[in-house]
Amino acid sequence: MPQRLILVAKVKSPHLGSTLREALPPFLERGWTVTGERALAEPWAMAGLDPARLTLDEELGASQPPAALCLVLGGDGTLLHAARRVGLRGTPILGINLGSLGFLTAHPVEGARAAVEAFLAGSLLPDVRPMLEAELWRGDELLARHTVLNDAVVAKGALARIMDMHLRVGAQDAGPIKADGLIVATPTGSTAYALSAGGPILHPSLEAFVIAPICPHTLTLRPSVVPADRPISITLEEAEDAHLTLDGQVGLKLLPGDQVRLRQAEARITLLQQPGLDFFALLQQKLHWGDR
Length: 292
Fold this sequence. Notes:
By secondary structure, this protein is of the alpha/beta class. It has two domains: 4-124 and 274-287, Probable inorganic polyphosphate/atp-NAD kinase, domain 1 (Rossmann fold), CATH 3.40.50; 131-267, Probable inorganic polyphosphate/atp-NAD kinase, domain 2 (Tumour Suppressor Smad4), CATH 2.60.200.30. It is 17% helix and 41% strand. The protein is globular. The protein is built from seven helices and 17 strands.
């Protein structure tokens, strides 16, 4: 049986066509099958690749056994999408960064061919990341359950007043919170929205969560780090135009009395990284640590 590749890409990127021409031939030459969403058909053809070699499937092979690789061509948002759609099935992810920052899609676009060849040579290293399971409860009814890689954010609308929430960590009451919102982030998500809210950077290997308030009413309410084995619950006491946002891509409307329950997911995501590109090297590269 030929090896299967799931391709997830940012179709609006001006770099997609050239990156497809660089990254896909090594797989096609080895007889790999490629599956992607329908929106990929046009850029695939414009890149001069044989349309017969691309299987269009909006479910990205969900009905089949896990693919050997998920190749992500885009930015971190594209990879977060791929993590939920494909990575949760156990398929490792190789991210090629077509954007500007790219903490997760750490391989630069100019090195796309080299990254693919390194994967095929077996020289990339697995980087296993914990995930966050989020549930939305309204009374005794479970309205939604999602597993995310970065964060869950409870926040208010642009013109709404400050939110009243109640926070529990494990069996402990963490008290009432008045703020514009609250972020619960994984170590992977600690370099995303939580970092902008003043949260700390966590090493990806840590078993912990960041809880970061957004514009708290009390200045002494600061971001904190809690063990990942303690479930977190956020109860919305009073708010208008409130919502729960997951990985910045899934949005759910919240009403007073709703409860968001968070815990470390059993599933984990495997990212493939170049040897030598450790976490601190990535921070120096992306956040310009050490620059003056």
